[in-house]
Amino acid sequence: MKTAIVTDSTAYIPKETRERLNIHMIPLSVIFGGEVYQEEVEITAAEFYEEVKSKSELPTTSQPPVGKFVELFQELSKEYDAVVSVHLSSGISGTYNGAVTAGQMAESIKVYAFDSEVSCMVQGFYAIEAAEMAALGKTPEEIMERLNEVKQSISAYFMVDDLSHLQRGGRLSGAQALIGSLLQVKPILHFVDKLIVPFEKIRTRKKALNRIYDLFDEEANKGKPMRAVIIHANRPDEAESMKAELQAKYPHVEYSISYFGPVIGTHLGEGAMGLGWYTR
Q1: Which residues in the chain are classed under CATH 3.30.1180.10?
Q2: How far apart are CA 173 and CA 177, in angstroms?
Q3: pTM of the full predicted structure?
Q4: Which of 80, 82, 215, 216 could form a disulfide with 140 if both were Cys (CB 3.0 to 4.6 A apart)?
Q5: Rounded to whole angstroms, how far apart are CA atoms 26 and 95?
Q6: What would the CATH number be for the domain defined by 3-28+63-151?
Q7: CATH topology of domain 155-279
Q8: How confident is the model over 67-118, as pLDDT tens digits?
Q9: Radius of gyration of the chain from Cα atoms?
């Protein structure tokens, strides 16, 4: 059986990696006024953050139309027997549900939709793991079983520099955002039950990042093979510094750097930093 791997643009997997592993990507969109841009296709993360600075209003975001999923699945059916489709948390987007619906509509191919319950390159970990297994000829059932196994060891924490984006985007309550703003709090957030919720409230950016390091230390100190990713919102130099620091301390971990692209960046704002990992 030949299995295709699909994910959405919010995994922010580099194009060369997607091409090398044969991962198919369906884009979400960011909307400035009446202008709609498909992220990773029509607008880059760097272009997005520049555009935000020049606008008075925050952009909005939209998920892929179900019809786009159906088109992709039908096209893949010409070459593949099944699809494993990995998507951002269903608690913050309807993208996963769109893939489920499209899978029911695509008659010529069996679709296995997977709710990553996270986003960004931590979601990308699932798609990469799935693609590596598909290349070895593993069945979709075996791949889904492995993805659920990965879910048991995956962790992701991120620090937001400006709470107004989360507040206006409806991803964090207004009261929480106000309290954070007044106290200059840099909250550490994570996903619980598919939703973005505060993990801890910390008073400075440096202390917040150090706390995330502490959480990573607990797992990395076990010495098991791990994959980790540093994620930044238009802070590439800071991400490189974090990677170098972690690599020196835990050389047994496989590191990469990724970014909060337009759709997720709309909700987190510039300056956000994240760290995600799982045991291989």
Answers
A1: 155-279
A2: 6
A3: 0.92
A4: 82
A5: 10
A6: 3.40.50.10170
A7: Hypothetical Protein Tm841; Chain: A;domain 3 (3.30.1180)
A8: 999 999 999 999 999 999 999 999 999 999 999 999 999 989 999 999 999 9
A9: 18
